[in-house]
């Protein structure tokens, strides 16, 4: 037997022990920590509940009037985007109230064209409204029989289940 064959298993064992002792092992879950600890956003404490509640909401610029391809009726597609404290898009849990007004400032106060309320606490409805591709909630609102001017203001109010209230406004052209 040659001396090289006897030392090979010992060299492998010694090498493994040195690697583990040097800190090249992985953290729990199989992900290397790289010697750094995860940092929680200073504005958020981990014991305050779910940290990914929506902090901002906007009426997405893809909101528009469209013709229903089956009926030919005019619809308002209102797209609402929520983002968390880090600016990442997220889902929402609460109630959305959408109102359409005449954008003309002279008619605004007395010209609510229509309003709709949608319950996003119903998880089935929440999933139906959420568009995975745009990461927005899509509400296809019927406006048949309503007088709609060429320029409308779309107002959205969100009452989150955690007590927060968010609002957004967007001008929609007919």
Task: Walk me through this protein's architecture.
The protein is an alpha+beta fold. It folds into 2 domains: 1-36, no CATH class; 51-173, Sandwich (Immunoglobulin-like), CATH 2.60.40.10. 15% of the residues lie in helices and 37% in strands. The chain has 2 helices and 10 strands, in the order αββββββαββββ. The strands form 2 sheets. Strands 1, 2, 3, 4, 7 and 8 form a 6-stranded antiparallel β-sheet that branches. Strand 7 (130-131) and strand 8 form a beta hairpin. The chain is globular and about 45 Å long.
Summary of the model, kept short:
The protein has about 170 residues and is an alpha+beta fold. The chain is built from two helices and ten strands, in the order αββββββαββββ. The protein folds into two domains: about 1-35, no CATH class; about 50-174, Immunoglobulins (Immunoglobulin-like, Sandwich), CATH 2.60.40.10.
Helix content: 10-25%
Number of helices: 2
Count the E strands. 10
Query: Into which percentage range does the β-strand content fall?
Result: 35-45%
Name the features.
174 residues, 2 domains, four-stranded antiparallel sheet, alpha+beta, Immunoglobulin-like
Topology at a glance:
Layout: H1 3-21, E1 56-59, E2 64-67, E3 74-83, E4 89-90, E5 94-102, E6 112-119, H2 123-129, E7 130-131, E8 136-142, E9 151-160, E10 165-173
Antiparallel strand pairs: 1-3, 2-3, 3-4, 3-8, 5-6, 5-9, 7-8, 9-10
């Amino acid at each position: 037997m040659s001396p090289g064959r006897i030392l090979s298993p010992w060299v492998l064992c010694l090498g493994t022990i040195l690697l583990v002792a040097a800190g090249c092992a992985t953290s729990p879950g199989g992900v290397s920590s790289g010697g750094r600890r995860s940092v929680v956003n200073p504005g958020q404490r981990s014991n305050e509940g779910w940290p990914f509640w929506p902090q901002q909401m906007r009426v997405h610029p893809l909101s528009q009037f469209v013709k229903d391809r089956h009926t030919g009726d005019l619809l308002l597609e209102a797209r609402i985007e929520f983002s968390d404290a880090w600016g990442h898009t997220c889902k929402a849990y609460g109630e959305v109230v959408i109102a359409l007004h005449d954008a003309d400032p002279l008619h605004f106060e007395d010209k609510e064209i229509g309003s709709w309320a949608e319950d996003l606490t119903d998880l089935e409805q929440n999933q139906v409204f959420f568009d995975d591709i745009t990461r927005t909630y899509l509400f296809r609102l019927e406006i048949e029989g309503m007088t709609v001017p060429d320029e409308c203001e779309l107002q959205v109010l969100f009452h989150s289940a955690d007590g927060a209230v968010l609002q957004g406004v967007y001008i929609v052209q007919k």
